[in-house]
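Lab notebook: predicted structure, single chain.

Context: the supervisor wants predicted structures on file for every construct in the current expression panel, including those that have not yet been purified. This is the next one on the list. No modifications to the sequence; it matches the entry in the shared construct table.
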Amino acid sequence: MSACLKRDDFGWSVDERVLMTKLKAVVLYGGRSTEHEISCRSASYIFANIDRQLYDVYAIAIDKQGVWRPQNRHRLEQQVPEVMPLGSGEDADRASHELVQQIVTPGGNKEGIVIFNILHGTYGEDGSMQGFLDMQGIAYVGPGTLGSALAMDKVVAKQLVSLAGVPVVPYVAFRADAWANSSTGILKEITEKLRFPLFIKPASLGSSVGIRKVTEQRDLEGAIKYALGYDERILVEIGLDVREIEYACLGGYEPKVSAAGEIGVPDGFYSYEEKYASTSRASVQVPARLEARVAAAGQELAKKIFRALNLYGLARIDLFLTRDEGNFYFNEANTLPGFTSISQYPKLWDHSGYSAKQLVSELLELAVQRRHQNAHLKRSI
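Prediction complete. Output recorded below exactly as produced.
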């Protein structure tokens, strides 16, 4: 995290340029997804922990209608709320208003901006916002357009990590149009290929939104219809007797991997309520109680998954560890994990000795490095 005071292959090093002039660090949060509220909580943690000696800090909310709303950063500096505001944008400072226009207007030099995108879920984590920021030439935290899209789609992610040699839980996947045309055939396929209990999941959502655990045939169709209310593609997985093990990745395309963490929930299902409610019964163990060889094997799988999905910057890699045989299975890769006071990603790095400010600073620096490198790629011949 210290200044390197040297030139890299592309000119001035990132840290040296930061010393010359402060970058504008923008926390972008809210968004048009079912994870809107969680994003507003994560944004509070991030806004509070950006190093003011290195960055001028701004906050921009996107409301549920997709309207960009600059916030009054001077007011937020006085007291950062637990949940960041949406606000009307009318009382924002002039510089924040101008910054929104600079971000959304094509053209112009945007090298002085770096965005900590914490728009969990649809339109923020799925490659949509990443593609927009790439088009605008703006640095941003987290994987690029391709990696974000790949990891967000649980079916595609399973297919890719399986090709890389990572075990996946047996599953059946289908789209809404196939269900409309042949629900009976799909139900038959599920019951013939899989066994209860089953987990029915929207393919492209996070925070356990839209997921139901089904233990009997009679509840299967209702759970599928419920999940179809959130996504047009559905994933049905076998429910194994497992421990939920998580690793945090941090770095470029070859990341550092944290120690393992473990989530424990009474009924074996880490639901949205258990993740974020103040009355959650979930337990968190950092580090997880694993034999050294098992923990190391999980770390190697996390790296393999990170590479297979073309990730960059950060990700939380979630694995299943079977209780009977001690085998790891891929669960999912979360490319914009929660940054609330109880979220696993910052907890895992805290255990490894990263303060909140150090963690946020490194993520911002990685974002600037990638933009700096990509800016030198040829875009015409």
